[in-house]
Amino acid sequence: MLRSLGRRPVAGGEEDPRVAELRTAVSRLRRELAAHPAEFADRCIAEDELAALAAMVAHGTPEIPRLRRSLLLIAGSIGSVSALRPGLSQVRAAVDLFGRPPRR
């Protein structure tokens, strides 16, 4: 039986805890980035990829290769901003919950 929790349909009424964790981490980092006063060259890349991650989790379980690509772009764009490292670490940990991408 599929039921909607307002965010996405789920089987058996339970939301995938990995999706919930990723949603929380992405939301936190988006808020921290928005509140960060300094401008930096790749800020728009981080904002775009965080928006893409938010959209992915809003539509169910995201694709692992796409998650990892977004994480790499976000890390590359804000990795030198020490104030955002805790939030970035939380996003990385949430992405890691999905496991490794399939080998080609």
Describe the structure in your own words:
- The protein has 104 residues and is mainly α.
- It is 60% helix and 6% strand.
- The chain has a two-stranded antiparallel ribbon.
- Strand 1 and strand 2 (9-11) form a beta hairpin.
- The longest helix is centred in the N-terminal third of the chain and has 19 residues, at 17-35.
- Mean pLDDT is 87; it is low at 1-9.
Mean pLDDT: 87
Please give the alpha-carbon distance between the first and last residues. Answer: 34 Å
The helix/strand order is EEHHHH
**How many β-strand runs?**
2
Largest sheet: 2 strands, antiparallel
Query: What spatial form do the alpha-carbon principal axes imply?
Result: globular
Proportion of helical residues? 55-70%
Q: Helix tally?
A: 4
In order across it, which strands form the biggest sheet?
Answer: 1-2
Could you say which structural class the secondary elements and strand pairing correspond to?
mainly alpha
pLDDT < 50 stretches: 1-9
Radius of gyration (Å)? 14 Å
Tell me the fraction of residues in β-strands, as a range: 5-15%
Summary keywords:
104 residues, mainly alpha, two-stranded antiparallel sheet, 60% helix, 6% strand, globular, disordered N terminus
In short:
With 104 residues, the chain is mainly α.
